[in-house]
């Protein structure tokens, strides 16, 4: 449960195709809530499917595929190389 | 037997198939589409079984039951305060884990729930083996598997519902047990709530649920509690104390902790009840998505799709368009023969067939347009397109999701304005609503097709496309201005679920087209019919105006002149003037001419052969002249005279009908208003057409059809185009099309803007800015074109 700040990277910098774990969401309640609705919350595992450039991405979590704009993708901090 | 009435409401995640199930149950034809957020308003229908009379309510899709979005609040209030007899929670079986997050919250409401496990076909394909009895046990409610798009499982669903309503199978929803710190707080708060609130209030909102919501800090619930004017307000400080305590012990705020545990519950139930039979290979959907949303292919493919859509609408629509045109043409001719009462003939042929017919001609284009929009919606491309366009949209102060209402707006602005509800941020929504009316709806299409066909026959497709393009350009430019000047601020970040690609069903597409097509025909048969009759009346009466010249007298003079001329020709032949047309050599000359005309087009290159063929029939002019010496020069005179007479009469008739129209009520009205539009090159006819178009833009074409055809002998579309060319230049025609594109949306659109924005101010603004913009742009086009010498 230790939070290692150096291991945190914003989602757009995560390697494509690899599953990563969401550590925290840096943003207001509204944003957190909207991501929570789509099952993106601390602890959930997500995979970068494709990058449309400048932080616009398509990610997969569970069976859900989600398109994210750049206003939000940089607010999702993920852990690059956990178990 | 008297059936009992019951209410059954359908709740579930967006795009889980709620409306599909609703349609399957009730036989309704509500809009279904493969993107999240199709249904924006609750819809009601009925289904009657042996025992019950069910009222079925379809609600907008939601992901949870919090206070963050209006839909969620509306849905939970509906469930709690309207007391439906049963809640049908649609769960997408192919995305079970996430869907159960909402289910967990619905179970907490403590109302009877039945789960419809939908999309079983897709779950199957993904290799999910779902143990239904186990799932029922874990959730404490009945679970029925369904495939809504095929109607599978709806009987079972109604049977389970009936069994519950008759008291045969009780339903006891499982509730999540939270961590002990939270549970302890909940039970303390619950005790306080039961003593603080009135029985009536607690009857609507169960105490445990209230405790949970207060602890979560749910703004809507807190507001509701405050508005009760409680005598004892300590409950609020109590809640705060409990929340602080939890935050201190567990290191996170209760809201997050509770949400996490709900996900935990969903995940637990999922992993327990579902086994993966096989690992899904990389799905086609994945591959397609890689291409469609990639940086390199995404935008070219996107442009290709939009361009293809336009091409299809115009090229494919043209063929059946001609059939319908000739149908109405035939009808017009038939009625002109049958009806002898002159005003009635004019009413039916000029007013009704002229007006309604000219609008109906465009039905095929409109059907194809809606078919294409349905294809975009049903395949799942719409959500991708929204994502791809996000960057450009963002630049113009819009939002990627604004793209969806904009595309729907090409069909009709009314559902487009409803669809702006996919936008979470209110400013985004207002701006999108303001510019959506610049998306050229299908009602405006007939105007362009008519004018482009009449004035730019060689480039009709491109001209129409340029109008659409102008609409889009103006829309984004205005959006940018509105964002800067009226509603500054950031737009909401883009988050959207991408639905799986689905093959559209033929039935679904047919329903889309049929609904739209019948709506168009209905409109033609009602509003446009009434409008056409009104315009006919206004432009045909007064029936005997004071003309500037005496046409009857002119006609008489012409006839006398003609008789004298004929007598001059006839006298050398010792014939009466009337006998000329039956004079054998003249008839032979005419026949030769007819044959010559007919065959010359075929045998154009072989002119000598033609003369030869006439000779073999003894019909060359030389032969006739030899047979009846001296008749040829006289025939030439006779021919010239006949043509001259014919032309003079036609000219008089058309001058008369033009003046009659301009002296009619419509003419007076149009001329009264036309000084405002004169700088754009519009005459009174255009003015009247534009005014009539306020009701529905199709009427513009209908009005043109009526105004230009009153008193005309022929009613072909061709004739209407010819008449248009007499009164307008290509430049004014283009300016007119542009004006039609931009000015005041139709009444139905204004109505829905008013309703959706709930503000007269914005409604008035939308109506006035579009009209001013229309004037300015048309002015620039007309005056600029004139300066360039195009007029
Ligand atoms: N394969 C499959 N597709 C389905 C099934 N049920 C619905 N669909 C499709 O799923 C898509 C969404 O259906 P809708 O009924 O519009 O979904 P909704 O829940 O009303 O969506 P919103 O109104 O956006 O909340 C459509 O393309 C349907 O054709 C099913 O059982 N199997
Ligand atoms: Mg729906």
Describe the structure.
The complex is a heterodimer of chains A (83) and B (791). Helix content of chain A is 16%, strand content 41%. By secondary structure, chain A is α+β, with helices and mostly antiparallel strands. Chain B has a 6-stranded mixed beta sheet, with helices on both faces. A two-stranded antiparallel sheet of chain B has the order 6-8. In chain B, helix 22 (460-486) packs across helix 33 and helix 25 (584-602) packs antiparallel against helix 26. Chain B folds into 5 domains: 4-165, P-loop containing nucleotide triphosphate hydrolases (Rossmann fold), CATH 3.40.50.300; 180-250, Helix Hairpins, CATH 1.10.287; 321-490 and 504-518, no CATH class; 551-658, no CATH class; 659-787, no CATH class. Chain B is built from 35 helices and 9 strands. Chain B has 791 residues and is mainly α. Classes of the chains: A alpha+beta (83), B mainly alpha (791). At the A-B interface, helix 1, strand 3, strand 5 and helix 2 of A face helix 3, helix 12, helix 13, helix 17 and strand 9 of B. Strand 5 (64-68) of chain A pairs antiparallel with strand 9 (495-497) of chain B. Guanosine-5'-triphosphate is lined by residues 12, 14-20, 32-34, 36-39, 60-61, 118-119, 121-122, 147-149, 378, 502 of chain B.
- Would you identify the regions of chain A where 5 or more consecutive residues have pLDDT less than 50? none
Major β-sheet profile of chain A: 6 strands, antiparallel
Order of helices and strands of chain A: EEHEEEHE
Work out the count of structural domains of chain A.
Answer: 1
Biggest interface goes to: A-B, 35 and 43 residues
Uncertain stretches of chain B:
none
Average pLDDT of chain A, rounded to a whole number, is 85
Helix/strand/pairing category of chain B:
mainly alpha
Number of DSSP E strands of chain B: 9
Query: How is the largest sheet of chain B built, in terms of strand order?
Result: 2-3-1-4-5-7
Strand order of the largest sheet of chain A: 1-6-2-3-4-5
What's the CATH superfamily of chain A, by name?
Answer: Ferrous iron transport protein A (FeoA)
Multimer state: heterodimer
**Spatial shape of chain B:** elongated
**Helix percentage range of chain A:** 10-25%
């Amino acid at each position: 449960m230790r939070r290692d700040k150096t291991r945190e990277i914003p989602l757009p910098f995560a390697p494509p195709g690899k599953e990563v774990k969401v550590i925290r969401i840096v943003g207001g309640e509204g944003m957190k809530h909207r991501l929570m609705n789509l099952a993106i919350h601390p602890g959930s595992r997500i995979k970068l499917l494709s990058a449309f450039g400048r932080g616009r991405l398509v990610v997969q979590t569970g069976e859900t595929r989600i398109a994210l704009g750049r206003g939000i993708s940089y607010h999702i901090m993920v852990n690059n190389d956990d178990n | 037997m008297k059936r009992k009435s019951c209410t059954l409401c359908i709740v579930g995640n967006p795009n889980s198939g709620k409306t599909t199930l609703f349609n399957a149950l009730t036989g309704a034809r509500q809009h279904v589409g493969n993107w999240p957020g199709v249904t924006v308003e609750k819809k009601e229908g009925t289904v009657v079984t042996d025992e019950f009379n069910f009222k079925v309510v379809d609600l907008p899709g939601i992901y949870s039951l919090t206070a963050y979005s209006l839909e969620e609040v509306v849905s939970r209030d509906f469930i709690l305060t309207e007391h439906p007899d049963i809640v049908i929670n649609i769960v997408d079986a192919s995305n079970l884990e996430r869907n159960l997050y909402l289910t967990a919250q619905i179970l907490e409401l403590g109302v009877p729930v039945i789960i419809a496990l939908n999309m079983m076909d897709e779950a199957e394909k993904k290799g999910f083996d779902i143990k239904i009895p186990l799932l029922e046990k874990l959730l404490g409610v009945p679970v029925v598997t369904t495939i809504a798009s095929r109607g599978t499982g709806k009987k079972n669903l109604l049977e389970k519902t009936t069994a519950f309503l008759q008291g045969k199978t009780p339903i006891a929803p499982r509730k999540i047990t939270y961590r002990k710190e939270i549970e302890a707080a909940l039970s303390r708060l619950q005790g306080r709530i039961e003593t603080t609130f009135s029985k009536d209030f607690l009857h609507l909102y169960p105490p445990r649920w209230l405790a949970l919501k207060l602890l979560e800090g749910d703004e809507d619930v807190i507001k509701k509690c405050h508005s009760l004017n409680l005598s004892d307000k300590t409950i609020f400080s109590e809640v705060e104390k409990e929340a602080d305590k939890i935050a201190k012990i567990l290191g996170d705020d209760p809201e997050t902790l509770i949400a996490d545990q709900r996900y935990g519950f969903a995940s637990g139930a999922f992993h327990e009840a579902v086994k993966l039979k096989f690992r899904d290979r990389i799905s086609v959907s994945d591959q397609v998505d890689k291409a469609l949303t990639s940086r390199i292919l995404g935008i070219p493919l996107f442009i290709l799709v939009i361009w293809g859509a336009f091409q299809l609408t115009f090229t494919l629509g043209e063929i059946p368009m001609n059939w319908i045109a000739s149908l109405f043409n035939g009808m017009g001719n038939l009625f002109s023969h049958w009806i002898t009462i002159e005003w009635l003939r004019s009413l039916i042929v000029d007013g009704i067939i002229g007006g309604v017919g000219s609008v109906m001609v465009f039905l095929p284009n409109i059907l194809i347009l809606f078919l294409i929009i349905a294809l975009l919606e049903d395949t799942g491309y719409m959500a991708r397109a929204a994502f791809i366009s996000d960057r450009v949209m963002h630049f113009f102060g819009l939002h990627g999701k604004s793209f969806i209402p904009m595309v729907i707006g090409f069909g009709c602005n009314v559902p487009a304005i409803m669809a702006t509800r996919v936008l979470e941020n209110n400013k985004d929504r207002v701006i999108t609503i303001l510019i959506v009316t610049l998306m050229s709806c299908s009602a405006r299409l007939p105007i362009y097709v008519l004018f482009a066909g009449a004035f730019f026959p060689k480039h009709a497709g491109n001209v129409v496309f340029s109008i659409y393009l102008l609409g889009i350009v103006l829309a984004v430019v205005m959006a940018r201005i509105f964002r800067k000047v009226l509603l500054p601020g950031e737009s909401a970040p883009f988050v959207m679920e991408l639905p799986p690609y689905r093959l559209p069903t033929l039935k679904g597409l047919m329903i889309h087209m049929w609904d739209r097509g019948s709506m168009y025909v209905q409109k033609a048969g009602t509003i446009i019919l009434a409008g056409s009759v009104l315009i006919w009346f206004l432009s045909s009466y007064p029936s005997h105006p004071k003309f500037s010249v005496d046409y009857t007298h002119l006609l008489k003079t012409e006839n006398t002149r003609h008789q004298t001329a004929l007598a001059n020709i006839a006298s050398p032949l010792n014939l009466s003037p009337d006998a000329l047309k039956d004079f054998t050599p003249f008839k032979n000359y005419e026949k030769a001419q007819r044959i010559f005309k007919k065959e010359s087009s075929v045998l154009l290159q072989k002119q000598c052969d033609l003369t030869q063929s006439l000779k073999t029939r003894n019909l060359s002019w030389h032969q006739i002249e030899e047979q009846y010496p001296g008749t040829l020069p006289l025939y030439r005179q006779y021919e010239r005279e006949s043509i001259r007479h014919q032309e003079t009469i036609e000219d008089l008739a058309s001058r008369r009908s033009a003046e009659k129209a301009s002296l009619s009520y419509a003419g007076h009205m149009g001329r009264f208003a036309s000084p405002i539009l004169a700088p754009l090159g519009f005459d009174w006819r255009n003015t009247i057409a534009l005014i009539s178009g306020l009701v529905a833009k199709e009427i513009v074409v209908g009005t043109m059809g009526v105004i230009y055809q009153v008193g005309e002998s022929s009613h072909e579309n061709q004739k209407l185009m010819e008449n248009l060319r007499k009164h307008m230049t290509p430049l004014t025609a283009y300016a007119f099309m542009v004006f039609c594109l931009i000015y005041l949306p139709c009444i139905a659109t204004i109505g829905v803007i008013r309703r959706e924005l709930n503000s007269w101010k914005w409604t008035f603004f939308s109506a006035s800015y579009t009209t001013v913009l229309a004037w300015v742009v048309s002015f620039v086009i007309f005056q600029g074109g004139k300066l360039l010498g195009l007029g």
